């Protein structure tokens, strides 16, 4: 057999293997098997709290896989910490043109990966607080703030909300970043939600607790968050904090929050990026040619919708967030 024929046979075998793997994953997903079971996240959180150097995380077949929380030598030159990796249904079933062999590797929905994480604050707490107070005032006098209050006061809600859990609102402390003002606005909007919900719920609840999970938070972020009544949570504790009386608030996160929430717990309400009526669970990268240069465009975001997410939100009353000032982005309120 020639080397060309051998190579073609190998590629055909790999293609068939990849297609079979994708079919198996999609069949499991269509049957309702969760990618992100609550008990898996609870067990992982427990192992992390115990200070282990190694953790075991069940894969899609329920088989525990070993992961190191200590940065391995092979990536020590560029990584100094671990983080939890969440793989969406699209990421598990879509072939990346830059790494076509990746689809053949084991890609469990929940795993440990390694990253560079330098959390040294760029600005002092006093500087960040001053910037936050200024942006909060801008938000509180905006039409978007007034509209959000009215929407939360009037939309149908079947049970009182006792908790707000936020994901991916971004660091508050990097004032030089172009996204700083938006991050400050998003955090300021949490207090608006609390005020609106307390007003409509009267004395039926003693208070609304607020939590936020974002790996980007540094010590200045944490201090400021606590001062404005928001308790920071380490991953995956934010997901585990969600219950039937929670409002989930999320804006363009870097993990598939929608798909995780759909598996872990349907909350009382969500305010997050609008779920589109149709989007395939399997997507294809787009090839574009401009000025003779070929580029590839990823067909899904870091927080993609899915058939399961669409099924979940169909049980909620929906209303687009009125955001004429572009303070928050393309968000929709979902209330149960």
Automatic annotation (TrEMBL):
Boundaries of every SRR1-like domain copy: 149-295
Keywords: Coiled coil
Positions in coiled-coil regions: 1-28
Short name of one Pfam family: SRR1
PANTHER family, alphabetized: SRR1 DOMAIN-CONTAINING PROTEIN, SRR1-LIKE DOMAIN-CONTAINING PROTEIN
Name this polypeptide is given: SRR1-like domain-containing protein
Taxonomic source organism: Aspergillus pseudoviridinutans
